[in-house]
Design brief:
By secondary structure, this protein is α/β, with parallel strands linked by helices. The chain is built from 19 helices and 18 strands. The longest helix has 31 residues.
Length: 463
């Protein structure tokens, strides 16, 4: 670990030299200056230190003026003020302007050491957090949305427009596996809301009572196990974004509560009496045709109109033509880097296979296929034989007499895949009813649907 650099500014050279000597013994790279002007010249030429320890009352540039100069340079570093007893009030004013803290002269060396340690730790965490946010923003930039089709260009254009629009609700539509969650993150990190939290929740993965408490939070004693108050995602993401995936699975009762929040931007925790107002951006996603859900009275019409302010439609992978190869290349390069294995492209046969397949699981399925290929391939160039696509042979789903039949010899996962697909296609009522028939929970059914990329196939089967 490199030494922390500390600049000491005091017009009394003996004090500056003393502190520099003490801090050098403590393992810091310390340097003293008799004027702020001299220190700023070195800062501009050699880069900023990790911390500045400065006297408050100095000729030419005072400690407060030095803080202003630091702000002008957009630097994030702690400044600690040293002041005589008579100037404590001025030191407090310096803290209001951005100083980390102050030390009263004559300075206690142990107090100085403790304060410096706390300041350096705190600002190191701030810098690390800022770097993490910068990397996230870079990772989810609009330029990372691959493709040259008109549909993809429209997606990029919409996101670029949204970054300057405050608090607009966005509905992201597309088949399973098209990357709706990635688009939601891109919308968040490309906008002014990127400084706040991005909170994602899948509405299909939780029963209604848990989903409600996750969204709105609860007060102590609201129910049997509520031993302490807990803020919900809407509250935790104040100033940021909440992404509601598979919003079509939300119950009508909870839809009404969500609509009430969207209309007034206020809510109450479960068991609470106080209204809580937040500025939280709401993004929603679904692979369902909400117009049909509204017609079948499974989704509220007023909520549909409220969340459909801006709609982003993601194309299926099979509709993207040769963009499929571009997406595949980027994904394979990423996996190659993760596995420390070189990737030099696809053979013509592999490219033909990638373009011929209809990708019912879209980009998610493509990534799964490529991940496996990169793991087991011994060549830096992937061939058609490396791309193992889903095959479902040897099954009969003729249920004219009420039975589901399959030939022997299939793997257990294939049997499970075919049977769940069959039940989803033939019992099109609700996911809760399908889960009951299968003898599993709604959450487990959701996991199986994602695992086998079933939603689009079922839509095609049931028309």
């Amino acid at each position: 670990m490199s030494q922390k650099r500390i600049f000491i500014v005091d017009d009394d050279p003996k004090i500056g030299e003393l502190f520099a000597t003490v801090l050098e013994r403590d393992g810091y790279a310390a340097r003293s200056f008799v004027s702020a002007t001299e220190m700023l010249e070195v800062l501009d030429a050699d880069g900023a230190p990790d911390l500045i320890l400065t006297d408050l009352m100095m000729p030419e540039i005072s400690g407060i003026q030095l803080i202003e100069e630091i702000h002008k340079r957009n630097l994030t570093l702690p400044v600690i003020i040293m002041t005589a007893h008579s100037s404590v009030q001025t030191a407090v004013e310096a803290m209001r302007l951005g100083a980390y803290h102050y030390l009263q002269k004559p300075v206690n060396l142990e107090e100085m050491r403790a304060l410096l340690g706390k300041a350096l730790d705190l600002y190191s965490d701030k810098i690390e957090l800022k770097e993490i946010k910068t990397q996230r923003k870079k990772k989810h930039s609009v330029s990372k949305i691959l493709g040259s089709s008109a549909e993809i260009e429209e997606v990029r254009k919409t996101i670029d427009t949204l970054k300057d629009i405050p608090n607009t609700i966005v509905l992201i539509r597309g088949e399973t596996g098209t990357g709706k969650n990635l688009i939601a993150q891109t919308i968040h990190y490309a906008s002014e809301w990127s400084s706040g939290r991005f909170m994602e929740i899948n509405c299909a993965a939780l029963p209604d009572n848990l989903l409600e408490s996750e969204l709105f939070g609860y007060e102590k004693g609201a129910f049997t196990d509520a031993r302490a108050a807990k803020p919900g995602l809407l509250e935790l993401a104040d100033g940021g974004t909440v992404f509601l995936d598979e919003i079509d699975t939300m119950s009508l009762a909870l839809q009404a509560k969500l609509l009430s929040f969207l209309e007034g931007r206020t809510f109450r925790r479960l068991g609470g009496v106080d209204d809580i107002r937040v500025s939280t951006r709401i993004l929603c996603a679904t692979n369902a045709v909400l117009e049909e859900s509204v017609a079948e009275k499974r989704f509220r019409k007023d909520l549909f109109f409220r969340i459909n302010v801006v709609s982003v439609k993601l194309p299926a992978l099979r509709q993207m033509g040769k963009d499929t190869l571009l997406i595949a290349e980027k994904a394979a390069e990423s996996f190659g880097a993760d596995f420390n294995k070189p990737f030099e492209g696809f053979t013509e046969a592999a490219e033909a296979k990638l373009l011929a397949y209809d990708w019912p699981g879209n980009v998610r399925e493509l990534r799964n296929v490529l991940e496996r290929a990169l793991i087991f391939s011994s060549s830096p160039t992937l061939d058609a034989k490396d791309l193992l696509l889903l095959k479902t042979q040897g099954f009969e789903t003729d249920n004219a007499d009420g039975y589901f039949r399959f030939r022997s010899g299939g793997a257990l996962e294939e049997l499970e895949y075919e049977y769940i697909k069959h039940i989803l296609a033939t019992k099109k009522t609700s996911y809760a009813e399908v889960a009951r028939l299968l003898g599993i929970s709604k959450k487990t059914l959701w996991e199986k649907r994602k695992k086998y990329n079933l939603d689009e196939e079922v839509e095609e089967m049931v028309g």
